[in-house]
Design brief:
Length: about 400
């Protein structure tokens, strides 16, 4: 049965439909982790270790999820994470996601590795709050070109990803033979031919208009020279990236600057010291360093380390509204959603991407009500039971949550 907004009841429904529609190599690139996928599994299992403590007989008729991020209102405490394959899920899938995010009143992040140009996204999704994710290449000037392009296109915030100094060991990509730009092998041709709907909806439309999908946000000299490599290994990595690069970006980017991919509290302090406006606690969705700690478990120490100096955002394994609520109660200002909306856009473009966001919104609203909260700013440690993080009922008297104050001042 085709997935429509009415037939998707949770993010797992959207994942199942995406798996049916996409070639195996492409779906696995989106869905899987790295090596033995310990980190991928742990990202989800970590949420199960954190329990919720509801309160009752509280008037919760006037519930709100609205927050302020970098001085601007957002209708939900979430934003769309950078996912480079959105344009392979759906024709110009980045535009579909940006439009769905704009309709929901939340920011959308475009990845460096996207197959739709940033100027196209800005033009076709008017009114969207656009963030741009950047990889810093060995030739720094090339990355700085993208920063200037993003500024000229009207993007409001810049996210520097710092946890990809070397290519990840995603062995399934090598086995599946999926590359950007595409190269054809007997195995992946068979894979693609078994999904004629995807060929018609996505690949054929690119071929008929702009040619085979490529990295449209790479500088022209790299677009010309890039050779086909397994997905995730096509982008030049930079093992010499350091805090001086952050300071240089701070000089050339006047808008909000976020550092994505850290988990250590000392790195969060250094980010604040070097001019970042926000940190994004992340292990790259379990896709880079296997056995990396789950971001939700790393979050409290990062929050404690930076206090109210900078905004704290988190991503990694968020599939339910209750997951988002747990992160907010641990002190995060906002959550980045990656795979969930991506499954939606793969299922049927903008409409079902919007459905994915709605699922999160409805679940967050429901959990707020059952916890006895009217506003996400009221969430704190008092709503959680997480002994492995030192959060217990017995500790209530000693633990005063900083979440309400942090959510109020996020980005101010």
């Amino acid at each position: 049965m085709p997935t429509t907004p009415a037939t998707a009841y949770n993010i797992w429904d959207l994942r199942e439909r995406a798996q049916q529609l996409l070639p195996k190599g492409l779906f696995e690139f989106v869905d899987r982790g790295t090596e033995d996928e310990v980190a991928l599994r742990n990202n989800r299992e970590a949420f199960e270790r954190i329990k919720l403590r509801p309160r009752v007989l509280i008037d919760v008729e006037k519930r709100s999820q609205a927050i302020t991020l970098f001085g601007a209102a957002a209708k939900m405490p979430v934003a769309i994470a950078p996912t480079g394959t959105a344009g392979l899920m759906w024709y110009h899938g980045e535009v579909a996601l940006a439009k769905a995010a704009a309709a929901a009143g939340i920011p959308f992040t475009l990845a460096t590795g996207s197959t739709t140009a940033m100027e196209t996204v800005a033009e076709q999704a008017p009114g969207a709050r656009l963030w741009f994710q950047l990889y810093m290449w060995p030739e720094r000037a090339m990355s700085h070109q993208l920063v200037h392009r993003a500024k000229a296109a009207g993007f409001e915030a810049l996210i520097l990803t710092v946890d990809a100094a070397v290519p990840a060991n995603r062995e399934y990509n090598l086995r599946n033979g999926f590359t950007i730009p595409f190269t054809f092998t007997r195995k992946n041709v068979l894979d693609v031919l078994q999904h004629p709907g995807w060929i018609a909806r996505v690949l054929a439309r690119y071929v008929a208009t702009t040619g085979m999908p490529r990295y449209e946000n790479f500088p022209q000299e790299l677009q010309r020279s890039v050779t086909a490599k397994p997905m995730g290994r096509s982008q030049p990595k930079n093992s010499s990236l350091n805090w001086a690069d952050v300071r240089e970006l701070r000089k050339i980017w006047s808008g909000p600057l976020m550092i994505k991919g850290l988990s250590h509290p000392d790195d969060a302090r250094l980010a604040a010291d070097n001019g970042a406006d926000a940190v994004i606690v992340s292990n790259h969705g379990g896709r880079n360093l296997d056995s990396a700690r789950a971001p939700i478990d790393s979050l409290p120490a990062v929050v404690d380390a930076v206090g109210n100096r900078i905004t704290v955002i988190v991503d990694g394994g968020f599939r339910r509204g209750s997951d988002v609520v747990k992160a907010l109660a641990l002190g995060a200002h906002c959550v980045l959603l990656g795979r969930g909306p991506l499954y939606g856009v793969a299922a049927a473009g903008e409409a079902v991407a919007a459905r994915a966001i709605t699922l999160y919104r409805d679940e967050i609203d429901r959990v707020l009500a059952l916890l006895g909260c009217n506003d996400v700013a009221q969430l704190g440690h008092q709503h959680l039971e997480a002994p492995h993080l030192g959060i217990t009922a017995a500790a209530d008297a000693a633990v005063v949550s900083t979440a309400p104050e942090r959510l109020r001042i996020a980005g101010e």
